[in-house]
Amino acid sequence: MAFQILLNIGLALIWMLLRTEYTVVEFMLGYIVGLLLLFVLRRFLHFDFYFRRVVAVFKLLVLFLYKLILSNIDMTKIVLSPNPDIQPGIIAVPTKLKTDWEVTLLANLISLTPGTLTMNFSEDGRTLFVHSIHVPDKEKAIAEIHDSFEKAIMEVTH
Amino acid sequence: MKNTPVQLHVITRIVAFIILAFSIFLFFAGHNNPGGGFIGGLMTASALVLLFLSFDIKTIKKVLPFNYAKIIASGLLLAVLTGMVGMFLGRPFLEQFFDYYQLPILGKTELTTALPFDLGIYLVVVGFTLLVILTIAEDDS
């Protein structure tokens, strides 16, 4: 992956030398040309086309912002209702993520969306104990975390 | 014993990208400097031929699953359609239009209808060259 980025930057520099214009715009044009070439020859590379990960990071960001707005609205409803009908609870969420880095990212994303909070980890660090303000159905809550954040993180790192 | 040309593979992986970048540079340089669709297309074809030379046909066909006959057809179609734009506006066939535009990041840029026409030539040249070479290469009899 690092090699691909290096090759892309190298192609952008060659592009600048060919055009004999040493500006940021020209570098960007060269970078885009290099990116296109890498995309066309993506099956030729030993690793995945690296820009796929950049897109995946962007998707994760959009998903996080979407969830943030959604759960903020939910929290506002709960806070403003006179007698809230909520069932707080702590659920254990097993995760398939491998490295500590990914698990930390997942825990942070869960904590940053209001209503849920990562409290602790199991001994091997692969099960998260999540406190949620409203969990009528345990399985559903776990499945939701798996389908949204865990899947998006896996797309970035695999 | 079957030996693998490791050095050739590694160098080809890098050099092919540089040749392709040069061919795209030539394609865009064509308007005001030496270059253009024909030489750019030949340069692209030569980069692909280099890939075919250092790897086997099966691998590269998997990497680049293009149908070169269709590339020739789409290049011709693009060139003819570009030529017909003038006819729709009551001007002669192949009349070219150009103007200067202020694009967001690129600044003042000249956009002309000669560029899509050139792209058509580029596609025909790439498709034709590779079709000829691959047809000869695949002929076992």
Automatic annotation (TrEMBL), chain A:
Keywords: Antiport, Cell membrane, Membrane, Transmembrane, Transmembrane helix, Transport
Protein's cellular compartments: Cell membrane
GO molecular function: antiporter activity; monoatomic cation transmembrane transporter activity
InterPro entries registered for this protein in UniProt: Cation_antiport_E
Transmembrane segments: 22-41, 50-69
Primary location class: membrane
Alphabetized PANTHER family for the sequence: NA(+)/H(+) ANTIPORTER SUBUNIT E1, NA(+)_H(+) ANTIPORTER SUBUNIT E1
Family listed: Belongs to the CPA3 antiporters (TC 2.A.63) subunit E family.
Protein's recorded name: Na+/H+ antiporter subunit E
Organism: Salipaludibacillus agaradhaerens
TrEMBL record, chain B:
Compartmental location: Cell membrane
Domain Na+/H+ antiporter MnhB subunit-related protein: from-to ranges: 8-130
InterPro entries: CPA3_antiporter_subunitB, MnhB
Coarse class of the protein's main subcellular location: membrane
Topological relation to the membrane, as annotated: Multi-pass membrane protein
Recorded superkingdom: Bacteria
UniProt keyword list: Cell membrane, Membrane, Transmembrane, Transmembrane helix
Transmembrane segments annotated in the record for this chain: 12-30, 36-55, 67-89, 119-137
GO CC terms of this entry: plasma membrane
Family of the protein in this entry: Belongs to the CPA3 antiporters (TC 2.A.63) subunit B family.
PANTHER family on file: NA(+)/H(+) ANTIPORTER SUBUNIT B, NA(+)_H(+) ANTIPORTER SUBUNIT B
Name of the protein in question: Na(+)/H(+) antiporter subunit B
